[in-house]
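Posting for a labmate who doesn't have an account.
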Amino acid sequence: MKKRGVAVIGIGFWGRNHVRIFSELPETELKAVCDINEERAATIAKQYEIDAYTDSKKLLKREDIQAVSICTWTTTHATEAVNAIKAGKDALVEKPIASTVQEAKKIVKLAEKKNTVLMVGFIERFNKGVQAAKTMVDKDEIGTLVSATSKRVSEWPERIGDVGVVKDTAIHDIDVMRYIFEEEPTAVFAKIGNLRHSKYEDYAQIMLTFEGGKTAFVEANWLTPYKTRTLLVTGSRAILNLNYLTQEITIETAGQSTTPRHVWQEPLKLELQHFADCVLNYKTPTVSGTDGLKALQIAEAAFKSSTQNRAIKLKL
């Protein structure tokens, strides 16, 4: 099978999973890893019998590497993505695409100019439960879409270094709402703040409004003693409940409750398979750089809403 040489930049908590999967995919040949921690890079490189770097610019000079995953801290996403695209590499940038909307726009424009594949790591788009829910909504199986509510709560994650709960976790559900509703929200109203942690916000309640009176509510925090990941979609004929973690769906109507079955699959593997397919066959990713930009625009509008205590109109 035709393969593409790939590398992972940033091999902390999440980057190591990218390394594992790229090493297993028939479409990719893992060539190298890069991390500012020299010992960590050397250890992972030895495990997979590949090369280790602490300077991504040196890695990007290699002609046998056609694509990279960028799994560094958010504050370095823009620099790493711009360097990769300028080097002619296709890139998957973990969410959020950048620290600011301005940085995100620069990345998207550069990828368009260089005609490189740019994908953003919104892993829930590759969750089989989310995909099944989207299909049910599209087929009108729950009736007219009325509203959706997501809950993504847990304890404070040790891996966090430079971003708060909105851009780290709530942004997943902001993207899912755009995906499920298949349209852009017209306004956002949010309450965001700190209860236990001073460095970054640790809770957020974000309401999105859509045309025709439809609404979406996103709850995220790092305050809850147990991990919960759920999505509830309300239609005119039924209510759909999804557990993101188990990928199980329950459909409740006036007369019965049913649980459609589908096979659980690892979302990250499906995500990286899709990225590899796009790189191999010059396809546009289903989760584009523009998707990353729009989700970030909504997240920043949510901060503005919370600060000003008013709804913020959106023009995406």
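Reply:
Got it, the structure tokens are right above this. Residues 124-265+298-313 form a domain with the Dihydrodipicolinate Reductase; domain 2 fold (CATH 3.30.360.10).
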